Amino acid sequence: MVNWKIILNIAKTHLLTKFKQTAIAALGVTFGIGAYITLVSFMTGLNAMLDNLILNQTPHIHIYNEIEPSKKQPVAVYDAFKNSFNVVHSIKPKQSQKKIHNALPIIHLLNKNPDVKGAIPQIKTQIFYIAGSIELGGNLTGIIPIEEAKLFNFKDYIVEGSAEKLQNTDNGILLGAGVAKKMSLSLGDRVQISTIKGDVFPLKIVGIYQSGVADLDAVQSFVNLKTVQRILGEAENYITDINVKLYTIDKALPLAQTIEKQFNLTAIDINSANAQFETGTTIRNLITYAVSITLLIVAGFGIYNILNMLIYEKMNDIAILKAIGFSGKDVQYIFMSQAIIIGLVGGLLGLLIGFVFTNIINTIPFKTEALPTVKTYPINFSGWFYIIGIVFAMVSTFFAGYLPSRKAKNIDPVKIIRGQ
Question: Contact 165/207 with Cβ under 8 angstroms?
Fold first, then answer.
């Protein structure tokens, strides 16, 4: 029976008598795990920030009426030309409304779907911004500000003012930061907008919107849904777009296909709308985890080399232990215990160093016009990184101790003593 009290006591004595080598071995584990925690937390945090920049503003399903040519031309239904080869030139888009027919009942039906977190209406129209003699083309979107803030993190992109203020101001407008800059407008100023029909309406600026995408901020602004209906002279059931947020993004494609068939509308799921962006995200994540795994493997080899040298330095101790009656198995347990103690201590210190470094990085100022709501460098404080770090420290030191300790187990003490 193994006497663990004696074995652990001998292991402790070995570690403390050769404190310099023990400290070097533990520091090898510490800095390997600390560097892993710091790198993976920072890189995944950065990736998440870039993903959220686009995906937070993108509905899981976007429903609208697509303007496109008729798939079946009149000549195709004329019996006299049924068996002929017909060529139609200068095909024009079919006459159709931007308005979604029965939009409100569709929204009500979608909100009853258990997979849907929320479905909200929008109205999109093209306008001109007028300030003095300046005219700029742009896009005006009618929204329900509170619902947008709840479902699509709309508040994160309001750099001045608030969603509540827009909700409570009938003639208010949330102006794009690019438009405000070009026209020298600020919070509280008034801007006139003109529809494509030529009607002019004065609106009060109650907020500034900055998405981080410069081209979008140079044209985009938001008003209340009822305000844009009044500007366009349309009824309360006039809706051009429906944005849907789901509980699970994986349900987006099948639900979009169902909506297209059921309502004869165009429904674009988030993956189809952001296919190129998703590819970039996948590659960035692949690089992040490849670098992290490489870092852990390099740290593991370093740990193995240090522990291997530590055991070869203690050949005399091994010979003495065997000479006084310790079995090869006992010797193996002693050196494996040392390795595991080094791994545990070094791993815990590595987690602490990683936590300290990531918190320091998280306080470093990071300001850019493209990301107005981000004030410091992003860090992902996922607990999984710490679990992976300590598990790797224990597993790597176990094998780093196991392989050399097998040699120590089979060493003949007589050969060692003769060599001395």
Answer: yes
Q: Report H helices in 139-184.
A: 145-152, 163-167, 177-182
Q: What is the mean pLDDT of residues 361-372?
A: 76
Distance CA 367, CA 373 (A): 9
Which has the closest alpha carbon to 157: 241, 202, 222?
222
Check residues 235 and 50 and name the one with the higher pLDDT: 235
Task: Report the C-alpha gap between 31 and 44 in whole angstroms.
Answer: 20
Angle at 306 between CA 302 and CA 309, to 5 degrees: 140
Nearest CA among 187, 199, 267, 185 for reference residue 228: 199
Residue keyed to tokens 């024009």: 92
Tens-digit pLDDT profile for residues 391-415? 888 887 787 777 777 776 776 666 6
Annotated domain spans of the chain: 4-55+278-419, 95-269
Contact at 8 Å (CB) between 60 and 269? yes
pLDDT of residue 109: 93
Nearest to 329 by CA among 255, 410, 244, 226: 410
In this structure, are residues 36 and 307 in contact, taking their beta carbons and an 8 Å threshold? Answer: no
Q: How far is CA 257 from CA 18, 110, 265, in A?
A: 68, 14, 10
Residue 305 to residues 3, 105, 301, 339, Cα–Cα distance (Å): 28, 69, 6, 12
Q: Summarize pLDDT for 194-227 with one digit per residue, the tens.
A: 988 888 899 999 999 987 777 888 899 999 999 9
> Which of helix, strand or coil describes residue 221?
strand
Cβ atoms of 55 and 278 within 8 Å: the answer is no
Report the first-to-last Cα separation within the chain, whole angstroms: 32
The full DSSP string for 330-359 is: HHHHHHHHHHHHHHHHHHHHHHHHHHHHHH
Measuring CA to CA, which residue among 142, 166, 105, 129 is closest to residue 226? 142
* pTM of structure: 0.65
Closest CA to 206 of 153, 166, 156: 166
